[in-house]
Amino acid sequence: MTTAATTSPATGARRRLRRPKGLTTHILLALAVLISVFPFLWTIVMATNTTKDIYQSPPKLTFGSHLLENIRNVLDTIDFFGSMLNTVVVACVTTVLVLFIDSLAAFAFAKFDFPGRKVLFGTLLVFMMLPLQLAVLPQFILMSEIGWVGMLKALVWPALSNAFGIFWLRQYIENGVPDELLDAARIDGAGFFRQYWNVALPMIKPALSFLAIYAFVNAWNDYVWPLIVLTNPDHVTLQVELAQLNVGHNTDYSMVMAGVLMASLPLVIVFSIFARGFIAGATEGAVQGS
User: GO:BP terms for this protein (predicted)?
Assistant: First the structure.
């Protein structure tokens, strides 16, 4: 009499066929990770060596001992920490306001029926498809008319109505926030804002975490609009300040890479903070849905 624990020949054959597929998957994932991480590693290599080492053929692929020297050159050449403070203020304020305004608009689009909803959402999608460069001239004229040229708030307010953020959260809320919970909240006397704050927001934390990363990175890396609108040297952001390192014919690329490395560290910190909530929320949803 055979027991249930006995493995049949067919089952063993299926497992042997499955192992090569699993190995191939792991190899492909490892290659994808290496390709993704290599630009960051190459930045560190260049930041720790000299420009002469970078021009070697074949290029030097090992870490050097010139990182502190390159960092000192960056700090002596530009106002790194002053521009970084301006960028931190703009990125943090923009991220907080984008999360609030976009989630509020997305909640209204997803769960409430009002006149012109489809037309407004369709218009939003159209604007999402347009290149951002088309808005530069109208935005500058508007900032000039209201006297905000040269001020940091000229970077914050145009970024608040993020079409992608509203679209992303609207799709998430439509599928992730049950109508039954909202109906129960209405029966208990909850108005629009209380339904949004007490019912919807706690259920869309993973989507908010992703949008926070997206909004912060966009605000941190923005270069064209700050270059145009920030005419005050005291209000220059980090990306504009770093661009001053890459001028002339004798550019010190090791110094440039050291500045890029220093500017990238806050992005790594922000990603590690918000990605944990995004992954945890997505995993929780997967477990509940299984």
Answer: transmembrane transport
DSSP string for 8-51: PHHHHHHHHHHHHHHHHHHHHHHHHHHHHHHHHHHHHHHHTS-H
Give the contacts of 101 (CB within 8 A, at least 6 positions apart): 160, 161
Closest CA to 153 of 138, 142, 166: 142
Cis status of the peptide bond prior to 58, with omega within 30 of 0: yes
Q: Is 241 helix (H, G, I), strand (E, B) or coil?
A: helix
For the chain, give the number of residues. 290
Pick from 3, 8, 216: nearest CA to 97: 216
The predicted-structure confidence for 116-161, as pLDDT tens digits, reads as follows 999 999 998 888 888 878 888 899 999 999 999 999 999 999 888 7
Roughly what angle, to the nearest 10 degrees, separates helices 80-111 and 117-129?
Answer: 150
- Measured between alpha carbons, how far is 45 from 67 in angstroms, rounded to an integer? 9
86 CB-near residues (< 8 Å, 6+ apart): 152, 235, 236, 237, 238
pLDDT band at 286 (very low <50, low <70, confident <90, very high): very low
